[in-house]
């Protein structure tokens, strides 16, 4: 136990040194796991002040969306904002307030690095630019657009890039986020998981997005079914038992009305989902997005809710 504690201490010191080297405050690096409970936050609409959300809810981490291609194999926020601009300032503010971040690469819209980088080594280099820019402890690879997801070549490129990135950054946590059916990953998701095993890509957490299923239904029950399906696929692929597979699983829900008419994740649903996540010790519990975590339409959730209701639920998740 003492040896483990010493390893943790050394890892924290190394993370703090890295943060100092890139000009970001190291004081919050030790205590916060940016993977576990980190709602998505994006800068192009809605409630974009992370420190206001932190103060109101107690949440400590955010998944920042999205790092994209600038048209080449070069990462920029939303494909246009430099790594040294307003997003770096936002990360500094989050860390100054005692939090941390996990940048998300990809999403549905925009030009993806997985497609524009023509080799695994080039893609790993693009990831590394972001890792180095912010002294990161974790990255999220949101693989959902058909150009990346429904493409054998790009899937393999991403997984090989993960392998290279983990070799260079052994303490970095890598999350892969994918869409899902109500019973777990579809054929493309299963292929991605199986290829990770075949290639030896050490993905730490597999996370599904359990929404946009239909025009309604019990979203708590459908979410649990989807994550159980993910767990079962991880068991089959990696030979894990239920507990281990759940501890490598995660979910990214959506608050309020989803993209599908009639489908709604209520506050009560999300509370139930957190109970499920807690009972199985899921490695990741999040949602899209704190920007939408307010009542009514427009930039908000489309439902009647208290401000930050979903973010508060995430803030209470301890794994």
TrEMBL record:
Signal peptide annotation: 1-30
Domain of life: Bacteria
Organism: Amycolatopsis pretoriensis
Occurrences of domain GH18 (ranges): 34-319
SUPFAM superfamilies: (Trans)glycosidases
Pfam families named in the record: Glyco_hydro_18
Protein's recorded name: Glycosyl hydrolases family 18
One GO BP annotation of this record: carbohydrate metabolic process
Alphabetical list of InterPro entries matching this protein: GH (IPR017853), GH18_Chitinase (IPR052750), Glyco_hydro18_cat (IPR001223), TAT_signal (IPR006311)
Keyword terms of this UniProt record: Hydrolase, Signal
GO MF term set: hydrolase activity
